[in-house]
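Quick one: structure for this chain?
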Amino acid sequence: MRLLFCGVWLIAILPLAGGCAVNKVQRDADRAVGDYYAGDYASAVTHLNPASSVTNENFVLNNLRLGSAALAAYDLGTAEGAFLRAYEVLNSVGVNNGGRTLGAVLLSENIRVWRGEPFERAMANFYLGLVYYMRRDYNNARAAFENALFKLRDYGESKGKGEQYREQESNFALAYLMLAKSYQRLGRDEVAQKTFARAVELRPDLAEVADAELNGRSNVLLVIDFGYGPHKVQNRDGSLAGFTPTPMEEGPPPPPVVRVDGERVQTDGLARPPVDLLVLAQDKRWQSLDTIRAVKSVLGTGLMAGGFIYGTQHNASPEIALAAILGGALLKATSQADVRQWEMLPRTVYVLPLVLPPGTHDIAVEFPEVRGVRQEWHGLPAPPQGQEATYYFRMQRYDNATHTWPPPAMAGPPPQNEQGARADEQP
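Got it. Here's what it folds into:
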């Protein structure tokens, strides 16, 4: 009897251990997310830098948050480091094995190292590749975009066999598009052509933006993040998570309008969203399957029911019945869904290859269908033909100021050459 009560008490108090230190880190992370939404990316980076070095269950998540804020601030060195740290954990094996899995059973699913949904992991690889691409490190960009195309588990139910899955090729057209551009910049035109073709096969409406000839001539690439990604929600029981809003609730993503030196650029065929994270979040292939919640929920319900039934018997011990009911209730309570998420993700990413006269230009991007979403940069360099400069626009309602190139966080020219190979690497 004493052992049962000690077990219940241990389960109840363990989540409180170390609360003060965790709360400080969590407060900094929450404040940084608010700064990001307000368009104050430098402040978000400042608050996330300490949190990103804490090797707890939110290590990956806080580094992805830091990467998003640093990328928007054009602090590419910080962004690369943050995305790379997250990448190394996401691509490691056994992160949640052993003690951490046991901890997830005894305490809460939140003690597990956050690795995100498959679509979040794909976007983590994409943004690491984007940072490399912006720095003209095309070989490492290629590797990151390839990693964004990991095999998916297509889950389905088979009568009498429970839940089964089969591996399926990724339909992440955004990564195929940027992978093809990386191959093209590395001089591997034949592979680039095949990869562009695969993107068009998946999404025929991307035929113009995936045109090899246009991308070969492009000397300015605009990568435009618009909107916000899906949010996890709990159902009434709290043991399962869903995603909101749905694509039908939000409608299709609006197209951007681009103006160069005050003149509107014809982008009708280019302004097609290669990805819609609201769509991916509703696709079971892009969701994680976690059975620990379901097992704990069922076990907790069973303990509660068993304790109640036992307590109604004539010679029952009320202490044992109470312990079973309390233990079941605590186990049931810890079966709540893990709703941690990468809040900075956009709804979609537009990729616009442009051919501009060499020199500096004023470039503005706006979404006329969404009031107040506009961003303008003065003095963006367009290199000579044969080279390509990549500029990132994070479109938010509270970040519609006019900016001047180079941004304060930009620290000199990229260290890689045009072919992208580092001194110690082979293409």
